[in-house]
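seq:
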Amino acid sequence: MTAHDIPSYMAHLGAAARAASTSMARAGTREKNAALTALAAQLRAAGPQLAEANAKDIAAAEAQGLAAPMVDRLRLTDKVIATVTEGCEQLAAMPDPIGEITGVKRRPSGISVGQMRVPLGVFGMIYESRPNVTIEAASLAIKSGNACILRGGSEALHSNLALWRLVQAALEEAGLPREAVQLVETTDRAAVGRLIAMPESVDVIIPRGGKGLIERIAAEARVPVIKHLDGNCHTYVDAEVDLDLALKVTDNAKTQKYSPCNATESLLVHERSAQAFLPRIGALFAGKGVEMRCCPAARALLAGVPGAVVVDATEADWSTEYLAPIISIKLVGSLDEAIAHVNRFGSHHTDAILTTNHPNAMRFLREVDSASVMVNASTRFADGFEYGLGAEIGISTDKFHARGPVGLEGLTSLKWIVLGQGEVRQ
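struct:
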């Protein structure tokens, strides 16, 4: 079986994953935790070979002229490795959700009815650039008792292969099937088309990458998809606000890292706070080379900031995910206007309000229709690791079956169970 015969190759991966999913579903907590602990140890010991593999991908990406945000996402830094390693250990320390029985109620007929949490079975993961996703997906699959088929981008092939070999070694060490985590080793795009159209082998597809990739998967998949298209995240500075807190949080939300989907792309400022707040945040942005695309009122307040790059916003700017040192800025006259703007132009990913007014904070939480809504915190916290999920498989802006950062529970389902003692229906 070779990767050149795509239909046969993908059918083989699918059959192996389906068989492995049966073993994973019955695997005990001890075996799954042993695999995660072994994987953490493998990651700590494999620094030099991971760096060597990643350097090949970085050099090729730069030679091909890949966009800077994509190259940034490609890097397997020591910090990235430390984060996914800690994620494996967090997952090993977390309670095992599989087999948990909840909500048992006795019915008048005598039967007891409840729900049991079970694995989804097999998920396919299609992702671009970030090789750390290989470990995040693998570790979550292991703990949740699923099997998975991973298809990373061609730009990260060397890094993904090196990481996948560590996963296979950890599975084998724990006595679990190596086929529980498989990597598509071909860069042929036809493999993606097959992976998303194998309902006999794959239960759900999780794409993680650019809007074009996710739109294609959503349109062509023959199995359910957990997805988000883009991350046009907002930070709203309310009329009543701690200015120092607002400056610190807004700066972090935009500039801590430009490439992730949870970076703030649009800043809304209540007109009562604007005169005190905008010149100060404008100076911070100017010092970091952030271009500000503004409504006329915001531009007038920022015009005198030394070194500031301030231009007129277009209608398209309000709904754009830049993934770059660019931010749109708009003044609003009320909380109602801010909420309406977020719900109209946002991508339902992550949005934050900075305020000292508790009722306004509660209204924002209730009325903003996004997967994560925050009060007085940076949008950059919208992340499975930061939420204590151990790791995340992605962020979903869908309302079914999972929403927001998708961790262990997002990779499980509930089935009804009935406990009886010989009862028959009358």
